[in-house]
Amino acid sequence: DASVSPRPKYSAVKMKLPEALRFVLALLLLRPATTVGLQRSQEANRVVPSTATLADCPRSCGNLSIDYPFGIGSGCSRQPDFDLRCVENSSAQAAAPRLFLQDGVTEIISDVSGTDQNTDFLAAFSHVISLRSDADVYNISWFPGKSFLFLPVIILNITGCNFDAYMLERSSNTMVGSCTVTCPTEGITDAVARQTCNGTGCCSVVIENMVTSLQFRFVRRRIGKLKLEGKSTRGLLWDTINITSDHAALSWVIRDDQQSSAGSLQNRSDYACRSNHSGYTQSNELSFLGYLCFCDSGYQGNPYILDGCSRDRGFDPYQRRNNCSRMCGNISVPFPFGIEYGCFGRKLFQLNCTNPTTSTLQFNSDLDATPL
Question: Where is the signal peptide (predicted)?
């Protein structure tokens, strides 16, 4: 418990009424000045992110690398949306830990980087709905956070029996995809349904829109006698709806809800581009207001930390990072090529693993790369 200081003793002072009013007015005028002084003091004590202040922050989770403005633990990320969770995998002792966004359901399955406007990362989503005999409509949402944007294309697989599935953009309530699942026979299993995912026990949805969040709505079809029962010899396919992502990618920004005009961001106390030799670019998406930092031409590194941008000295014959990802699907990425900062010999050799599932590897100029 906090200690309580003794109340100070005030000597009695006699005042005339006009003097008392002037005294009260003076106290009222002093209050805003005191508040402003406190705000400035708090702002002055804000810890500027740097290599030193972030030294104790984890830089990886399993085989995935993490760069500021993302982080794990208190004081390791710039904002709540970028506070990540590294969760031990309980399904198998030998399995690597899994990395999640702060929502606890969006799994990160590629490195997250703050270097040189590399703002895309791959994500995964999985959710199971247990059906009830008294309900035919089920709703869930996938909202990673206001700092994120889903990139096209999103591919979702949905298993179950006898229902219509609708995918809507959560904020506008606009439908962006749909499919129908039927089960002609009771003998179908989840494993068999997933092999083809052609509408029998499983259906796929391809979302080509750029959205900030998704709302899933499932409407069950009651067909003849095939309806949910308390006891049944049928498998779990009949009693659950299972949603899993087959491919999903997210992009991120530093949120700017104040919609700052061009040139005014640098004057704000919460300006994110902390390094010398850095600048910013603003997002043009109305539903995705924000900006990104970058190192000036001739510099490379992390613009979100103090002195994070350093002179690009051309070809570096050494790999500077220890845990570099060297595979994109079934494509090997040997040095001097690389995916993350510190893993390639020069900026020209940085590649982007846009889809490990299909082994899609690109140069930063968006040209497809062939196997190396």
Answer: 1-35
- So what's the pLDDT on residue 91? 65
For residue 123, pLDDT over 90 is answered with yes
Residue 2: inside a domain? no
What residues pair up with 291 in beta bridges, in sequence order?
254, 282
How far apart CA 188 and CA 199 sit, in angstroms, is: 12
Nearest to 160, CA basis, from 200, 124, 121, 104: 200
Using the predicted structure, report yes or no on whether residue 351 has a pLDDT greater than 80: yes
Instruction: Look at residue 329 and tell me if it is in a domain.
Output: yes
- Give the range of the structural domain holding residue 66, as residue numbers without chain letter: 60-113
Q: Which residues contact 259 (CB under 8 A, 6 or more apart)?
A: 289
| Residue 341 falls inside a structural domain | yes
Q: What is the pLDDT of residues 328-346, one digit of tens each?
A: 888 888 888 888 777 887 7
Q: Tokens at residue 72, please?
A: 């794990």
Would you say residue 62 has pLDDT above 70? yes
C-alpha to C-alpha distance for 250 and 246, rounded to whole angstroms: 14
Are 88 and 137 in a shared domain? no
Whole-angstrom distance, CA of residue 211 vs CA of residue 195: 28
Q: Which residue would you say has higher pLDDT here, 149 or 230?
A: 149
Cβ 250 vs Cβ 144: under 8 Å: yes
In sign, the C-alpha dihedral spanning 287, 289, 291, 292 is negative
Q: Which two tokens stand for residue 209?
A: 């829109």
Would you state the torsion angle of the CA atoms of residues 327, 330, 331, 333, taken in this order, to the nearest 10 degrees? 20
Instruction: Spell out the residues 6+ positions from residue 88 whose beta carbon is closer than 8 angstroms to its own.
Output: 97
Could you tell me if residue 75 is inside a domain? yes
Task: Report whether pLDDT(37) > 80.
Answer: no
Is pLDDT of 102 > 90?
yes
